[in-house]
Amino acid sequence: MTTVEDTDVLALEERHTAHNYAPLPVVAAAAEGAWITDTHGRRYLDCLAAYSAVNFGHRHPAVIAAAHAQLDRVTLVSRAFHSDRLGPFCAALARLCGKDMVLPMNSGAEAVESGMKVARKWGTDVKGVPAGQANIVVAQNNFHGRTISIVSFSSDDSARGGFGPFTPGFRAVPFGDAAAVADAIDDFTVAVLLEPIQGEAGIIVPPADYLPRVREICTANNVLMIADEIQSGLARTGYTFACDHWGVVPDVYLLGKALGGGVLPLSAVVADRDVLGVLHPGEHGSTFGGNPLAAAIGATVVGLLETGEFQRRSALLGARLHDRLQALTGDGVLAVRGLGLWAGVDIDPALGTGKQISLRLAQRGVLVKDTHGSTLRFAPPLVITEDEIDWAVAQFASVLHDAAVDGDLRS
Ligand SMILES: Cc1ncc(COP(=O)(O)O)c(C=O)c1O
């Protein structure tokens, strides 16, 4: 936690950094594997993993080696020229996804924006939707990022307030309700865009028949199914993609976060040629998208995923995490949801807010993130060990116990 020596660093942030976050008072100085070390050498078990961007652990040796090697060769040429890294990366990622083509971008929000642009273009060029008439069906309580078009279909008032006017062309229906998706589709619908498991909403796993039915509905109506696997994908839930739990193959994968190996932003739209082939030179782009450094790292990340090791770890260790957390039900925990090493834990609001419990946990050396008042998210790097899981949950149990003894932490 912070001490006097950290005051300067925090004062600079307070004064010169936009206040669009409210971080816990932990000042990271170094990190390795599942652990973050602060400026005073205190270690914290990272149970957030940068919202799944650090799935393979902080500074995974293979990723760091690939980055170092590429730093010594070439880092950025823009797409005005070719690089010897882009093709191999795209081929490897397309193979991992079982698709033909990759559109590389940087942030997750850019992948979502790009996916929506591709869907609209496909709608116009292939489906025959009149220009400017396309609509996209989305789920309520979604989280797909922060651009104006994306917050245009957010249900979160704080994400939208003051940011209008918004982009038209979206229809939001309840998450988990396939019939509502079918009802919302009309002749001008080009895509259904979903998180297979809603992350920011609190790790909401849909009913078992939901994604298979959405898949059928999309196919029957000639509508693209776009799965935003930016947080749920790349081994987080025990499979390469969360969609794999239900045997569902979307038309378009949106990937980000862990694709950059925890080193840099790297995102992608991945689809077959009949979809991504609608883009022609000049119609879309990004200066840094697919740069050689990102491509070298991305190819290494795909290599890690191809071993299957991280998917196995997430499934096995996730079962342990869920068991341990479930055991706290009734002792300050109201409900536990999720799959693999991804758990949303509703805590008894009488014990304090999620933020207060997170602060107490940080004081005990475990970093988590609250969402929606009294839900905590546990999403550790997939390199976490069984003992570390047990230790983290033991700290959580102690915090809940202390909160119950101390009374409402909000007072
Ligand atoms: C499902 C999902 N989509 C998109 C995004 C946006 O990613 P980024 O913050 O890299 O723009 C996020 C970020 O949390 C996300 O969870």
Automatic annotation (TrEMBL):
Annotated PROSITE patterns: AA_TRANSFER_CLASS_3
Pfam families xrefs: Aminotran_3 (PF00202)
GO molecular function, one term: ornithine aminotransferase activity
Gene3D superfamilies: Aspartate Aminotransferase, domain 1 (3.90.1150.10), Type I PLP-dependent aspartate aminotransferase-like (Major domain) (3.40.640.10)
Listed pathway(s): Amino-acid biosynthesis; L-proline biosynthesis; L-glutamate 5-semialdehyde from L-ornithine: step 1/1
Swiss-Prot/TrEMBL GO biological process terms: L-proline biosynthetic process
UniProt KW keywords: Amino-acid biosynthesis, Aminotransferase, Proline biosynthesis, Pyridoxal phosphate, Transferase
Matching SUPFAM superfamilies: PLP-dependent transferases
UniProt EC number: 2.6.1.13
Required cofactor(s): pyridoxal 5'-phosphate
CDD domains: OAT_like
InterPro entries referenced in this protein's UniProt entry, alphabetically: Aminotrans_3 (IPR005814), Aminotrans_3_PPA_site (IPR049704), Class-III_PLP-dep_AT (IPR050103), Orn_aminotrans (IPR010164), PyrdxlP-dep_Trfase (IPR015424), PyrdxlP-dep_Trfase_major (IPR015421), PyrdxlP-dep_Trfase_small (IPR015422)
Family statement drawn from the similarity comment of this UniProt entry: Belongs to the class-III pyridoxal-phosphate-dependent aminotransferase family.
Entries under NCBIfam families matching the protein: Orn_aminotrans (TIGR01885)
Name under which the protein is recorded: ornithine aminotransferase
Gene: rocD
